[in-house]
Design goal:
The chain is mainly beta. 3% of the residues lie in helices and 41% in strands. The chain is built from 3 helices and 33 strands. The strands form 8 sheets. Strands 2, 28, 29, 30, 31 and 32 form a 6-stranded antiparallel sheet that branches. A 5-stranded antiparallel sheet has the order 1-5-4-3-33, with no helix packed on it. It is globular, with a radius of gyration of 21 Å. The structure holds fe (ii) ion.
């Protein structure tokens, strides 16, 4: 079976090439997969997940591996699987990341996969998106008819009310360090705004509300002083401070109001929404990040996230910061039909602490966001989860009425499977487990794309 992991058993390998982080070396298609339990009949569509899978078997950093898509097709209770690389110049020319910076199309395309206005886009945050189809064929670099001149974040937000897609790009190379973009519901890029921030920062995610977008200016900075102390030009510098920037969706730099918060880092947000004169954000907040430099993804307890709530009082300028739970977790998701709107529930992946490198845990957490009340789904011993993605029962079902899906990995058997959990019966065993014909390496983000 296509699996480079067997060759990667030396202890001196970088953590992101060991065990189930190691890439697979086969692109396969298989119909009629083995199913334990029963796939809900109303769950018809494609669960598509992106992740880093270095074709050579090696990459210098977890973030640098070639993007591979893993697609699980569900139809009338049956399941099939296909995996394919996103075929970009980064893959075809076997570029290293430094060389890729000279070509906006040379994306690893390895971080997320989203569908908007009929396009399926493979995303990474330093290059253009790459369009693929649902058979996982690569179509080409996508620049919104020539209107996108820079990179695109891997975490765009799609408004469930207007169908618009909002995104940003950040640059560590030169000003503007931040740009904002708005795309209408037909896929036309209709607004581009340069945004002023005092220094280049790594901005991985952000949030929207019904009327606003919220940027997170947090202190993973690009700074040559850091290169001297950590050997990496990127790293955590809390003395630079941390701010949230609230801007009307149709506004520009002059319209942003900035709000100071305690220095921290947030790779991922759950959701945010407006309530009276306040904006409420639920985020996976960690005390610090990349303290030892860019290579230092995991550095102990303070570098693992928890659920926090930030309440921005737009009148007073004060931000109330509250830790809602002590469970270490990341890769948060919500019911995507509530993005930017008041939402009651969030789903997240437990992350292990007291380990030597980033380690996905064997629990999913379901949060009642307002109270921080947590319900755990235990995957079982020696099983590691992935990002939990929510799929509603139908377009009109209530929030949380649906299924939580994820690719998980059995360490003992070295097999991967898709688990489908009834969201309203979260603690119970999955209603279905679909065994995959090959191992699926731990990866990044994915989406549920229901059949139309
Ligand atoms: Fe992410």
């Amino acid at each position: 079976m296509g699996d480079i992991a067997g060759k990667n058993t030396k202890k001196d390998l970088l953590w992101h090439l060991q065990g189930n982080w190691a890439p697979v070396d086969k692109e396969i298609s298989e119909l009629n997969l083995e199913i334990k339990g029963e796939i809900p009949k109303d769950l018809n569509g494609l669960f598509l997940r992106n992740g880093m899978n270095p074709k050579s078997g090696h990459s210098d950093h977890w973030f640098f591996g070639n993007g591979m898509l893993h697609g699980l097709y569900l139809e009338n209770g049956k399941a099939s699987y296909k995996n394919r690389y996103v075929v970009t110049p980064y893959l075809e020319k076997d570029l290293d990341v430094i060389s890729s910076f000279g070509d906006l199309t040379a994306s690893p395309a390895n971080t997320h996969i989203v569908e908007h206005a009929g396009k399926v886009l493979a995303l990474e945050e330093a290059h253009l998106p790459w369009e693929v189809d649902k058979d996982l064929n690569t179509i080409g670099a996508y620049d919104f008819a020539g209107k996108l001149k820079g990179a695109m974040t891997a975490h765009p937000k799609i408004c469930p009310e207007t169908g618009e897609m909002f995104f940003f790009s950040y640059s560590m190379m030169g000003e503007p360090f931040l740009n904002y973009y708005r795309v209408d519901d037909t896929g036309q890029l209709i607004q581009s705004e340069p945004i002023e921030i005092p220094r280049p920062v790594m901005m991985h995610d952000w949030s929207i509300t019904r009327n606003h977008v919220i940027f997170m200016d947090l202190p993973i900075v690009s700074d040559m002083d850091l290169a001297v102390t950590t050997g990496s030009p990127f790293g955590f510098k809390p003395e630079c401070g941390a701010r949230l920037g609230v801007m009307p969706r149709d506004g520009g730099n002059k319209d942003i109001k900035w709000f100071e918060i305690d220095p921290c880092y947030v790779f991922h947000s759950f959701n945010s929404f407006e309530e009276d004169e306040k904006i409420i954000l639920y985020v996976s907040r960690q005390q610090e990040a990349m303290v030892g430099g860019f290579q230092d993804i995991y550095g102990g307890e303070s570098t693992v996230a928890r659920l926090w709530r930030w309440t921005i009082d737009l009148k007073t300028g004060h931000v109330k910061e509250e830790q809602m739970d002590d469970g270490a977790c990341d890769f948060p998701r919500i019911d995507d039909r509530r993005v930017g709107l008041k939402s009651s529930f969030g789903y997240s992946l437990q992350i292990e602490t007291d380990v030597e490198s980033l380690t996905f845990g064997n629990h999913f957490y379901k949060y009642q966001l307002e109270t921080g009340l947590r319900i755990d789904h235990d995957l079982g011993n020696n099983i590691a989860g992935g990002e939990p993605v929510f799929a509603p029962c139908s377009d009109v079902s209530e929030e949380d009425e649906g299924w939580v899906m994820s690719f998980v990995h059995e360490r003992d058997t070295r097999k991967s499977k898709l688990v489908i959990i009834d969201s309203r019966d979260f603690e119970s065993q999955p209603v279905a487990e679909v065994y995959l014909p090959q191992r699926i390496p731990y990866g990044a983000h994915g989406s549920w794309m229901p059949n139309k």
